[in-house]
Design brief:
With 327 residues, this protein is α+β, with helices and mostly antiparallel strands. Helices cover 35% and strands 24% of the residues. Bound molecules: ligand DP6.
């Protein structure tokens, strides 16, 4: 009986052009393409073991046994790998992240990227990076972007096979730093999966989608040309447009807190004073402050001196998801 066990590591990522809303909820086909940067230094490490001895799938995440809908989501993801391999064995999944849970960093991206690579390796399947990215997308849309390295574009795509993410600039291309100002550690009331289903109920979503391609092209060009001023303009507006859609959906989703808005203003002022920093915000109140090389220390000091910032986490552009050898 072959040993069917493997471990994989993946980074979370921060979207610079956002994913919000699907054309197909089951397949997580997004309504528009998106761009992200992997968050190096932050990792999720996941081991998957298949065995005829297991009566059911089980998953332990950061020391907690999963149950209910969370475990079902993992099980469905394992089913995809089992079907490819023609295997019926149940699996034991064990996963740990080195960044704090509930700090507003989407752990589903690194979790489903690492789970995909570990499950595929454990079953000795040969999948290309593109196929792994599509597979990871089925578990969590943004996980498709945590499979390739560095600066990544996720092509929206109209089918499972054509909706995948790919590197357009390696991690070393631009030494940006993401300083994440943690404003709240509370678990968000409405998660992304539910949020995506509400996007279409906002009258602003169509306007967002009509202009999304142009913003994506401008963001990609700004990264390729190391043009921080253009990057700041486009990333901030894209983040705000997504939040405008969230706030005007039915029911509305308000993720910002007073300090979120205060920090957005502060970052714009700092930039006017010559500090190269920009903000972007995901489905939560915490503010990702992305700094050009050489500007991270002053921003870190300023963030740490704010009484409403609980903690500042730091990440640099990260590499791809990978299977850990010999485990
Ligand atoms: C606001 O990928 O977390 O962070 O596919 O339901 O798991 P699911 O959603 P998820 O959505 C991410 C939303 C976002 C923007 C982004 O990362 O592009």
């Amino acid at each position: 009986m072959p040993i069917r066990k493997a471990t994989a590591v993946a980074h979370p990522n921060i979207a610079l052009i956002k994913y919000w809303g699907n054309t197909d909820e089951a397949l997580r086909l997004p309504a528009s393409g998106s761009i992200s940067m992997n968050l190096g230094g932050m990792t999720t490490r996941t081991t998957v073991e298949f065995s005829p001895d297991f009566a059911a799938d089980s998953a332990n995440v950061d020391g907690q046994d999963m149950t209910g809908a969370g475990l079902d989501r993992v099980s469905r993801h394992l089913d995809y790998a089992r079907e490819l391999a023609g295997v019926k064995q149940r699996a034991r999944v064990s996963s740990a992240s080195n960044f704090p849970a509930g700090a507003g960093i989407a752990s589903s991206a690194s979790a489903f990227a690492a789970l995909s690579l570990a499950a595929v390796a454990a079953l000795n399947l040969e999948l290309s990076e593109r196929e792994l990215s599509s597979m990871a997308r089925l578990g969590s849309g943004s996980a498709s972007r945590s499979v390739p390295s560095g600066f990544v574009e996720w092509y929206g795509g109209a089918t499972h096979e054509t909706s995948f993410a790919e590197t357009f600039a390696p991690a070393e291309y631009w030494a940006l730093t993401d300083l994440i100002a943690v404003i709240s550690r509370e678990h968000k009331r409405t998660g992304s999966t539910e949020g995506h289903t509400l996007a279409g109920s906002s009258v602003l979503q169509q306007a967002r989608l009509d202009t999304a391609k142009e913003r994506l092209a401008r963001c990609k060009a700004a990264i390729q040309h190391l043009d921080f001023a253009s990057l700041a303009e486009i990333v901030e507006v894209d983040s705000t447009i997504m939040h405008a859609v969230m706030m005007t959906s039915v029911p509305p989703l308000f993720y910002w807190q007073p300090e979120t808005l205060a920090l957005m203003e502060a970052v714009r002022e700092w930039r006017a004073d010559g500090i190269q920093v920009l903000y972007t915000i995901d489905a939560g109140p915490n503010v990702h402050c992305i700094c050009a090389p050489g500007h991270e220390l002053v921003v870190q000091e300023r963030l740490k001196s704010r009484p409403n910032v609980l903690e500042v986490l730091k990440a640099i552009p990260g590499g791809p998801a990978y299977v850990v050898a010999d485990e």
